[in-house]
Amino acid sequence: MTETVAQAAELATVAPRMLDESRWADVLPAHIGAAKFQRWALGIMQRPELLEVARTPQGQLSIVTALLDCASLGLEPGRTYHLVPYGGKVTGIVDYKGEIELIYNAIMRPVVASLVYSRDDFHMVGANVPPRHEADWFAEDGRGAIVGGYAYVEFGEGSYSQVVRMTEAEFLRHRAKAKTKNVWDEWPEAMRMKTLVHQLRKFVPWSREKQP
Question: CA-CA distance, 158 to 181, in Å (whole number)?
Fold first, then answer.
């Protein structure tokens, strides 16, 4: 057996050893069982980039820490919560779908979030009134550069949450503080949407538990 094959065989046993089902039982919300989350965790650990991180104890610790955070929020690794390798460790990132899910769990009402581009017609109306936002949504030459974005919750019967508004300069300040700038650069719109909804989550109810 060559060294490369031997290393591959060793890595194939890492995930089951480090991801014991009992790790998740105490932190998961009621609607997700430990066995289900275990399947998710083992599934995402088949990715070569994560197995590479798992070569070291520090890398393994970062993976388990991220997965525990994911489990505590009741999100699904690889779909609404992402493990991003960087510098021999992973960073856990909730994406905008996960942020929306956490809000929806608590209030079961629509979350509205949108980016604004330089060619759009955008006007704020009030602190808790949806803005006026018109655009050539299917413009062949695009809608220009991103200038900002907004997000709010529609509570129904004409009632809305505070409208969170962010400028492109604010988005870039969040990017500057992020450990995973490569993710911001690869998925610029998704990361801005995630940042918007995360800011909104500070002003509205949210829950890791689904409401009955």
Answer: 39
